[in-house]
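Re-run requested by the PI after the first attempt was lost when the workstation crashed. Everything re-entered from the original request form. Ligand of interest: dihydroflavine-adenine dinucleotide.
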Amino acid sequence: MLRRALLGVSRSRSVKNLVTRAPVTSAVVDRFVAGETTDNVIAVTRQLAGSGLLVTIDQLGEDTTAPEDAVHVVSAYQELLGRLKTSGLSGSAEVSVKLTALGLALGAEGQQLARENARQICLAARDAGTTVTLDMEDHTTTDANLQVLSELRVDFPGTGAVVQAYLRRTETDCRDLAGAGSRVRLCKGAYAEPESVAYRDRQDVNLSYVRCAKILMAGEGVPMLATHDPRLIEIGRTLARNQGRSLDSFEFQMLYGIRPTEQHRLANLGHSVRVYVPYGDDWYGYLIRRLAERPANLTFFARSLVSKK
Ligand code: FDA
């Protein structure tokens, strides 16, 4: 209920103005975001990689409203990928990209524009010796996202997909995506979706997550289980064992600032653990989704509001 309300108001411009101007915000944002600049995110990546974790970096931003803004996003990723290369971090870090930041929603030509922009980022990633994963956004973009993914995979087969267990379609998508070499991140899903397309009950989402994880683990690709949920993490480990998978044939993924002790515990057990690290100044949509997921995050936010930090 609270989650849907928060996600519902997150698109309101006046709420956005209120939240972004509140004297909160640095403490809250710092917890989930690696800073505003490329230097900031390189420093965080170096520290995470040094402690045995893998990284995927997201340059914050979504719902681009002008083609020239999408070009800026491409440039920012190109700069970032160049820095990963020269810093010797591209073996540990890849990038995550949102197609709406690359122009997907810009009318009839949006999909083509987003694909061409994503291709530029994939070229820079290949030059740096790393990969790109296409984040998944709300359900109105799923078909376009998977279409762009399949086109990019012709030239860049390592491009990662994301599927959301809360969508009723996702088991079918997992079957289509479970082929050799295919990197697939499985998450629960973070947007407010109608019941016609998505499970709304937590338990139904969890059951769907397990069915999807089974399909991916039984397939020939690289499942990337993106969750902080202790039960799903244990089920993921069991499924991998039952399939006779080696520890390096799948990943666990978690968000920066969430359950860092668990991230290290899994890495110490020999698992590949990748941390999703967002950076940049356009943090509003990302922050609201994190607050909507967990009442404790909301309490933390409220406390920061009154502490004026
Ligand atoms: P959920 O939020 O239901 O929490 C389940 C349990 O996990 C809790 O009961 C608690 O035990 C534990 N837990 C969760 N948060 C905790 C905390 N802060 N401290 C301690 N315990 C905690 N979504 C999307 O729509 N598109 C995308 O592309 C992505 N990409 C993505 C990448 C990565 C790496 C991750 C981890 C997540 C995403 N997501 C996403 C977000 C995802 O869909 C989902 O909203 C969040 O991961 C929250 O769901 P959980 O699976 O963590 O479980």
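Saved to the shared folder this time. The chain has one domain: 34-279.
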